[in-house]
Amino acid sequence: MRTALAIAGWLLFLGSAPGCYGVASDYVGGDGEGGGPGAAPVYYRPQIQADLEAAKCTTCHAGTAPMKVTPAPSSDAQWQANHREASQRAEGLAPKANGAGGHAKVALDAAVLARWSAWAAQGAPYRAAPVSDAGFGGGGGAADAGHGGGAAGAADAGTGGGSAGGTGGGAAMDAGRPVTWEADIRAVMVSEGCTTCHGGSTPSASYALGTYPQAMGNGKDLQPNVVPGDPVSTLVIFSRSGHEGMSAANALKVLRWVVDWEAAER
Question: How is 27-57 classified by DSSP, letter by letter?
Answer without folding.
Answer: S---S---S-TTPPP--IIIIIHHHHHHTTH
